[in-house]
Model the fold of this input.
Amino acid sequence: MCNDRIWILMTRKLSGEATSTELKELDMLLSPLQEYNNTVFTKIAGVWNETPAHDRDFMEATYLAHLERMKDKGVVISTDEPMLVEDAIDNKRLSKRWISLKMVAFAAIFIAFMAGAWFLLTAKPSFGKDTYTASAIKEIKTPKGVRTKIKLPDGSDVWLNAGSKLNYDKKFDGGIREVYLTGEAYFDVVHNAEKPFIIHTSKVNVKVLGTQFNVKAYDDDKTTETSLIKGSVEVFLKNDPSKKYLLRPNQKLVLSNESLVLPANLAVKEEASGIKFNPQGEITELSYLHDEKVDVESSWTRNILSFEDEQFSAVAKKMERWYDITIVFRNKRWEREYMSGSFEKENMEQALIALKYTTGFNYRSEGKRITIY
Amino acid sequence: MNVGSGLENDGTIRELQYQISMYEDQSAYKSLFFLLFPSLQNFAFSIVKSRVLAEEIASDMLLEVWVRRHKLTEIDNLKVYLFVSVKNAAVARLKQENRFSRFSIEDLQVEFVSEYGNPGQSTELHQLENIIAKAVKDLPPSCQLIYKLAKEDRLKYKEIAQILDLSVKTIDNQLAIALKKIAHAITSHSSKKSEQ
Done:
């Protein structure tokens, strides 16, 4: 039976079940059979370690068929389509969704609680295990007029725009990669399907696997904007976790920070385009600068201050952060004036003069304070 | 493009389980589906011997995962749980089709994955795979199934024993038989070659 023992030990070794004593025993049994060992066993091991592969397209199709089956049985799980607001208001669906909404709400409270704990204890919500490690939080802050680039522990790059703040756990080794953002940042996230990357802002959470995108979430701005350059991202509303938006490349999601109050520029656009305005958010295509290579949203990472068809009030906010100045409107009429432009090498004075000629306002500067009239 | 399968990563499954349960994470659910569906469908097929039925059974069991997502973290070993559920559903289905038929571990039709991950693999390795596949086909069905669960689905001995209601010792012996046959096929092939 000594012969059979070899086979038992061999399979145990292949499947990773063998103990160290068993491995030693196997070596001893095999040593007189050196030649056999080298040919047959290595061949078997080679084939054993091959992992079966499934065609990704085939699997995607199988998954879709599975979702269809689920739908037939009354189990709806929304997929790639961003949830439409109409869906949520639909009365027929409301009752069905109620229980799951409650659970989502519960999850949201739980997340909010964890996030709160994160800030209060400066410790990280971890998976299952309560490993609170104090002062493991890294904070990067840029003053007005200063922009910076950071490399996260997972290799992802983050450009942090002026007047912004980014927090994350130094170790960055949890089940999910999490950062907390106030202000504006451009992310180039290293792909890792097993560790989603989540950006928490005051209004939304953005979830990605690996991709390039810009998040603009200044607390004093009227809107929170997510612009996708490459890949795909999901945006979750913090005050309504049942809603989520899925962005495709070259799309920009604009969400109003003041709930129920329409951002003025969007309201005007709605009239002009005739597109029904969604009070929660609007997805638009990204605009590109003249050379068609640099999009407006991420141009700041290349030291270009740009704006496309934006009201002076929003442009002024950008300029305040960019040049570290304060802009005051004496004449409120100019705040609503639309303007486009991009500045690369211009200083604050040159930029203001250029805008003055295209728009027609006057300005006066006293140190860092600019008055528009 | 191909995606790797094999269920070696237990930690991944646990994490997905948690994500689905706590955050209703749909992408985690999808990942879980990609990880488990092919293995579960193949396992169901070995019992019901119908592709359509097998797909239905595996799909139903994974549907339950979503329906009961809030209690998902209570399941200790989701992989084993799903294999056992698939087995029970498949056996029940068999009885439903023909009330005289009884499930026997010797009456199985085991299918192996024919596609392997490495497209640039050598013809030698490919040839070797064919020899092994042939040798495995000649094994008794229960032995084939245990070999498949260990090699392809990367299940642990204890897990296979749990799923099939067998002792770990039986798994040990059955796999030893399989390996011995495989080794024999390889040796006789290479000796035939050298005679030519």
